[in-house]
Amino acid sequence: MLCRQTSRRILLTGISARLRLADKHTPFRRVLARSNMAARSLPPEIGRFSHVWWVSSTLWLVGFFVLGGLGIGLPALIASGVIENVSLTKVIAVAATVVSGLQTFLRCDSRADRLHVAYRYLRTAEFHFMHEENYPVSDLVNAYERGEQLIESAFAPSELADESQPPKTSS
After folding, report:
1. H/E element holding 80?
2. Per residue in 58-75, is it b (16+ CB within 10 Å) or e — as a string?
3. Which residue of 12, 28, 88, 128 has the fewest CB atoms within a 10 Å radius of its CB?
4. Considering the entire predicted model, what is its pTM?
5. Is 2 domain-assigned?
6. Is residue 170 part of a domain?
7. Tens-of-pLDDT digits for all 171 residues of the chain?
8. In sequence order, which residues have a C-beta less than 8 Å from that of residue 148 and are 6 or more positions away?
9. Is residue 73 part of a domain?
10. What total of structural domains would you count in the chain?
11. Do the beta carbons of residue 121 and residue 150 sit within 8 Å?
């Protein structure tokens, strides 16, 4: 918890310092060519997190489809009887088992989904920050933290014990 508070303080300090610096040395607001909306410059830290979350979401989704394709293709190859070599068939069967275990263990689909939802939270906050004059930096940081919590929950064990209740016995 202390680490999260410290990182939030550093992020807020860095963002507000960059905004003050941008306000002193460059035009803080610029008029967009296509509309009358004013846009503020986005802190580079937030843009970097947004990009990393999008790339990570895409890679987990690709991993989901690759493992799924292998999980279907390898057993189908074994069942078709195309391979007559028994030792090669055993190797492919072991590979199919490993792929099936990786699908269950990694949960690529839920991780990709949570990373994408976190990315959408941050992108929505970025849009509001850049195009609404009164959208505070703290709301942008809150959207980042909300996305970070989603990502942490994607990598946590699926069923956590409820700490308020003692463990149940089978008596």
Report:
1. helix 44-80
2. eebbebbeebeebbeebb
3. 88
4. 0.65
5. no
6. no
7. 444 555 545 454 455 444 444 444 433 333 333 344 456 788 888 889 999 999 999 999 999 999 999 999 999 999 998 999 999 999 999 999 999 999 999 999 999 999 999 999 999 999 999 888 888 989 999 999 999 999 998 887 655 545 555 556 665
8. 118
9. yes
10. 1
11. yes
35 in a domain, yes or no? no
Across 15-82, the runs of DSSP E, i.e. the strands, are 29-31, 38-40
Give the HSE-up count for residue 44: Cα atoms under 13 Å, Cβ half-sphere.
3
- Which two structure tokens, joined as six digits, stand for 12? 């807020």
Cα–Cα distance, 43 to 38 (Å, whole number): 16
Q: Could you tell me the two tokens for 161?
A: 């014990």
Which two tokens mark 133? 């004059």
- Give the chain's length: 171
Domain of residue 69 covers 7-27+40-155
DSSP letters for 33-68: SSSS-EEEPPPHHHHHHHHHHHHHHHHHHHHHHHHH
Residue type, 29: R
